[in-house]
Amino acid sequence: MSDNAAVVEAVHEALSHVNDPEIRRPITELGMVDTVTVEGGRLSLTILLTVAGCPMRDTLQRDIAAAVDAVDGVEELALEFGVMTEQQRADLQVKLRGKAGAEPVIPFNLPESRTRVFAIASGKGGVGKSSMTVNLAAALAAKGLSVGVADADIYGHSIPRMLGVEGAPTQVEDMIMPPQAHGMKVISIGMFTPGNTAVVWRGPMLHRALQQFLADVYWGELDVLLLDLPPGTGDIAISVAQLLPTAELVVVTTPQQAAAEVAERAGAIVTQTHQKLAGVVENMSWMELPDGSHIEPFGSGGGKVVAEALTRDVGAEVPLLGQVPLDPKLREGGDAGMPLVLSDPDCEASRAIRAIADQLAVRKVSLAGKQLGLSPV
Ligand SMILES: Nc1ncnc2c1ncn2[C@@H]1O[C@H](COP(=O)(O)OP(=O)(O)O)[C@@H](O)[C@H]1O
Ligand SMILES: [Mg+2]
């Protein structure tokens, strides 16, 4: 083997440790390494991006430079970016998704799927459903799990802001690469609407949007997917049940009795959809005053009431997974795109959320709920 051929081989080997930042697979496997030539210590590389103006180009450039820098015989790097042809993109899609022309399937419904899907539901808005979604997701990711978050709250999408995601998803053919934040893959209907335009969609379009989230997004291997549902028992809740029959519902409520009643209605939907109920989260349970004493601005008992009522409704134990106190830092974290469990992991609210995440991370019989013996809808 000539010296050059040996160096070229070493470069290929170095590049096989560089992952595409979005797809998270080696660029060598994805057909992104186009030409590699070495002449007198000068390495000329052409890398094919999936789309022109790929937002991850700088990251890729840095990673590639770092990887080849370590190769003996490379003194200088001339890196050029090209763009995949339509055929190359189609090949990539086949590589990622399987058979050409295959209908997009929802990977979480495949029998071999190891992903646990939780749909976070509430009776009404403002109870902290999205805040719980992002903090539970961050807590699960911090445990080392591979986590996806899908914002299915078509009208009130707030997940991107709460996780500090600004980028738009990249599209490879008809596959969508979800942006990442704090180690999680994040997709929101908000990423597909320009600015903050109000979205007025009818049922069938909602269903289609949700199906896209689930099928067209390249999620990779996820341990957990959290879906932030819109409040109430509307179209999306029904669509989730149809599209993801194995999704387990987590019901969020405040301690207030009135909130508890509507939360119960949101949870009771599973008696019609045959989904499982993972449990109830009570949020805004109390607030600690500077002198260390606790007040309960929203009363008490709502979470327990909902868990008991749902246990009766579904005929299986529905646990109260935890109670999360009010903490102004939690709201600030939401506004700043940094979940509280990451910025202040030891405060009381973070500890409560982590304890709930721990219960969601393990598959326990008591969490699985039970399906009612009704015939399918
Ligand atoms: N435990 C909490 N402590 C302090 N603020 C909270 C808490 N939970 C939620 N909030 C705040 O309450 C508001 C509503 O929460 P959000 O998660 O958007 O509710 P939902 O998704 O149910 O509409 C947000 O401003 C959020 O930051
Ligand atoms: Mg919300």
Identify the notable features of this structure and list them briefly:
single chain; Rossmann fold; 9-stranded mixed beta sheet; 14 helices; 14 strands
Gist?
By secondary structure, the protein is an alpha/beta fold. 37% of the residues lie in helices and 21% in strands.
Describe this structure in words.
It is a single chain. The chain folds into 2 domains: 3-97, GMP Synthetase, Chain A, domain 3 (2-Layer Sandwich), CATH 3.30.300.130; 112-360, Rossmann fold (3-Layer(aba) Sandwich), CATH 3.40.50. Strand 6 and strand 7 (175-177) form a beta hairpin. By secondary structure, it is an alpha/beta fold. It has 14 helices and 14 strands. The strands form 3 sheets. Strands 4, 5, 8, 9, 10, 11, 12, 13 and 14 form a 9-stranded mixed beta sheet that branches. Strands 1-2-3 form a 3-stranded mixed beta sheet, with helices on one face. The chain has a two-stranded antiparallel sheet with strand order 6-7. Mean pLDDT is 86; it is low at 363-377. Helix 6 (203-215) packs across helix 7 and helix 8 runs parallel beside helix 10 (302-314). Adenosine-5'-diphosphate (ADP) binds at residues 122, 125-131, 158, 283-284, 324, 326-328, 330-331, 334, 349.
Tell me the layout of helices and strands:
Blueprint: H1 3-15, E1 33-39, E2 42-49, H2 57-69, E3 76-83, H3 86-97, E4 116-122, H4 129-142, E5 147-151, H5 159-163, E6 170-172, E7 175-177, E8 180-181, E9 184-188, H6 203-215, E10 224-228, H7 235-243, E11 248-253, H8 257-268, H9 270-273, E12 276-288, E13 294-295, H10 302-314, E14 320-326, H11 328-336, H12 340-343, H13 348-361, H14 365-368
Parallel strand pairs: 2-3, 4-10, 4-11, 5-9, 5-10, 11-12, 12-14
Antiparallel strand pairs: 1-2, 6-7, 8-9, 12-13
The site of magnesium ion (MG) has 5 residues, from helix 4.
